[in-house]
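Below is how a single chain appears once it has passed through the pipeline. First comes the sequence as given, then the structure the pipeline wrote out for it. We keep one example in the README because the format questions we get most often are answered faster by looking than by reading.
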Amino acid sequence: MLAWERAHDTRVELTLLGAAAMRRLNRRATGRRGLTDVIAFTLPQPDGSTLGDVYLCPAATEPWVQDGVASRREELVRLVVHGTLHVLGYDHPAGPGRVRSTMWRTQERYVRRLLARSP
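Resulting structure:
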C-alpha cells in the first residue's frame, strides 16, 4: 500500500490492542471515552521521512462481523488501511460524509486490492 501511495520514505508500525487498552489510549490521545477501532500517530522525521504508529482494536470490529457486514479478515485489513492512510495525511469528516470522502473511497479501493491479492 505504501508503494501504491509512493510513500517509500514512510514506515508504519502496527499494534493490536484489546478493548480495555484501546479505551485507555483513546482517552489519553483524544480525550474521548469509549472504544474506537483505530488510532494513528504520525511523526515526521528531520530527513523528510515519516514514522507512523497505528493502533488497532480487533474487538471493535465485532458489530460488523456479527451482523455479517464483513468478515473479520476484511475488517482488519480495512483498519490497517484506514490507519495507514491517516499516517499518510488523509482525513475524513465525521458523520455521514465520512463514507463519501476521498479518504474513504481510497481506503475501499485499497481494501479490495489487498483482499484480491491474498488467499
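Residues 10-117 form a domain with the Collagenase (Catalytic Domain) fold (CATH 3.40.390.30).

See the next section for the split statistics.
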